[in-house]
Specification:
Aminopeptidase; 606 residues; 23% strand; Immunoglobulin-like; four-stranded antiparallel β-sheet; 12 helices; 3 domains; alpha+beta
Length: 606
């Protein structure tokens, strides 16, 4: 075959040009997520929330497409000198609910700032709220055709053929969504779920099941290489580009860890703020519904779990979360390879909390009496229901509806078999709400020359709708998270100086002493941060009057990690022939400070 490949520079530039043109000509998808705001609208709302002395916008930097990454700082006085909580929204760009919740939480904090409770929180702590950490990726959620895409705009050679972005998905049925292709395939590994044939699950041969379908992303083999949609429109996933357990050479992870402008901007912002004590993010790495557990990492090996000394803190934070929010039906947490939330603990050294933010609450429904599924012979393509059940409430009349709760072998479906549970729960919820979260499978009648061989149908999950609630639910959802967000400062470590005294020993000698106590509910830093020096340590110092000197100790000393309720003794021997007063101070940027003064002449404190 004649080599018709373009020069390398042209092959790199043409996809970029096509992408830019698509941005200028691609219309926003009407009705995809009505009521949700685009990244530009989110930023405009943040700027509108600025309030002198209370809330100010900080620009972290710009993305490859020039969009600003904005942070709203909420706090009174010298906000950057107080212990702080960083709150991130849509860490997974297509989960738009995260950005919307963070904006609403910011609005709530500002509106309640005058109340005694919130004013007390803001007097001692600061919030950094970043609703849209990956705005380029988020913008794709508002451009037709709609797809479940987490990557940003960076062109990428997914199939390693020297070209970039040459075979992406196509909207074959013209409905404005990228869903899936279901192809009849004798070698297929997937079968319809007996509880709902809209869901495809991997067949289990040991149970007498047999796969009948292969599944592909909706689209054509545009580059005619025998693969389908294997090199889509570029993209590095913000939530797979971080340095802890970085998934090198994997799809969407980028050329190297923290390669993307948005990741570098956020990392620089956080490292420059040593006052950040805790990071909370809305992401699929949920460790609040099910707290992170300590493992058995070997000395000098790569860490694969949190340290044992940090496990009680994560249990406490999870418990408080569950007291304020009901995480029933929460989806299982996604693995943490390259994720932001894992980085925030392992490589930033802070308490890192994450919540999925929203998931469908499965409605309680009475079990329907349905006829058993039977398989007439061993050559049957798939389970066939003996009777067609009535359509579920709110479902598309053309969608496939639940069949009998039986397996291909005719026995009742094993309730402990979790295959397809996530999709089943989504569809139950969508049907109960009358929402169109599923595109019914329809035969494709167009040109099949660039399609897989076999009977092809277009349809499947509309993932953007399945990961985000209707906008009408957002206010109430934010209201459920607000108490937890406002409770977090009260769980942080808190310093107290007790027993402050200065004992006169004669001849101008004094022994100054105090007890430093952590009266908060978390340690003064994670054990991991202490072991790896990832956090500024707690320090104590004594300020002396003129003409005096220390006979033992140093003016400033490092204090080890203090557990909740733990204390340490501070002592200095001072020579001060002219008397005066001394000040004892203990502080850490992420913990706060406490001080006390004492007169040398009288031995009393003030």
């Amino acid at each position: 075959m004649k080599n018709t490949r373009l020069p390398l520079l042209a092959r790199l530039l043409l996809p970029c040009l096509a992408f830019i043109l698509s941005l200028s000509s691609g219309a926003l998808a009407d009705g995809a997520l009505p009521g949700y705001r685009s990244p530009d609208e989110i930023n405009a709302r943040l700027r509108a929330l600025e309030s002198p002395g209370l809330a100010s916008v900080i620009s972290l930097g710009r993305t490859a497409q020039g969009r600003e990454i904005l942070c709203l700082r909420i706090g009174s006085g010298d906000a950057d000198s107080k212990p702080a909580i960083a709150v991130l929204g849509s860490v997974q760009a297509q989960q738009r609910v995260g950005a919307e919740l963070v904006v609403r939480l910011a609005e709530g904090l500002i509106q309640s700032a005058a109340s005694d409770r919130t004013a007390g929180v803001l007097a001692g702590h600061t919030y950094y709220l970043i609703p849209e950490p990956s705005p380029d990726a988020a913008s794709a959620c508002f451009t037709s055709p709609l797809t479940d895409r987490a990557g940003n705009s960076r062109p990428w050679d997914d199939d390693k053929d020297g070209g970039v972005d040459e075979d992406g998905p196509d909207d074959l049925d013209g409905d404005g969504w990228i869903t899936q292709l279901r192809v009849k395939d004798p070698a297929g590994r997937l079968m319809p779920h007996p509880l709902d044939p809209r869901v495809l699950i991997e067949a289990d041969a040991s149970k007498g099941e047999r796969g009948v379908y292969s599944i592909y992303t909706e689209g054509l083999d545009d580059d005619v290489d025998g693969s389908f949609n294997e090199d889509g429109r570029g993209g590095v996933d913000f939530n797979r580009n971080w340095s802890f357990d970085y998934p090198a050479y994997q799809a969407d992870a980028g050329l190297n860890a923290v390669s993307e402008p948005e990741c570098r901007a956020l990392a620089d912002f956080l490292f420059a703020r040593s006052n950040v004590a805790l990071v909370f993010s809305f992401s699929p790495q949920d460790n609040l519904s099910d707290a992170w557990k300590a493992g058995q990492s070997q000395p000098y090996s790569i860490m694969n779990s949190i340290l044992g000394g940090d496990a009680p803190a994560y249990e406490l934070l999870s418990k408080r979360y569950k007291e304020l929010l009901d995480p029933k039906d929460a989806p299982a947490a996604r693995g943490w390879s390259g994720s932001f939330s894992a980085w925030a603990y392992f490589h930033f050294g802070r308490w890192s909390l994450s919540s999925a933010g929203w998931w469908p609450r499965v409605p309680a429904a009475e079990a329907a009496e349905v006829a058993p599924v039977v398989v007439s012979d061993s050559s049957a393509a798939a389970p066939v229901a003996a009777a067609e059940p009535a359509p579920a409430a709110g479902a598309d009349a053309h969608s496939e509806q639940p069949a009998a709760a039986t397996s291909a072998a005719g026995s009742e479906w094993d309730k402990d078999d979790k295959r397809g549970d996530r999709e089943l729960n989504w569809l139950k919820w969508m049907d109960s709400q009358g929402l169109e979260g599923f595109a019914a499978w329809q035969p494709y009648s167009g040109d099949t020359r660039k399609l897989p061989e076999g009977e092809v149908e277009v349809g499947g999950m509309r993932m953007l709708r399945m990961q985000n609630p209707p906008a009408a639910e957002l206010d109430a959802l934010a209201g459920s998270f607000a108490p937890f967000l406002e409770a977090l400062p009260g769980l942080l470590p808190r310093l107290e100086l007790g027993g402050v005294k200065c004992e006169a020993l004669g001849d101008g000698l004094y022994r100054a002493s105090a007890t430093l106590v952590n009266s908060g509910q978390l340690p003064t830093m994670p054990q991991l941060a202490e072991n790896t020096a990832l956090n500024n340590p707690l320090q104590a110092e004594v300020l002396l009057p003129g003409g005096s000197s220390l006979l033992t100790g140093t003016p400033r000393r490092r204090v080890g990690r203090l557990l909740p309720g733990a204390s340490t003794e501070l002592n200095w021997l001072i020579y001060a022939p002219q008397g005066g007063s001394i000040t004892l101070r203990a502080w850490s940027p992420s913990v706060g400070s406490v001080e006390a003064s004492v007169e040398l002449s009288s031995g009393g404190s003030k």
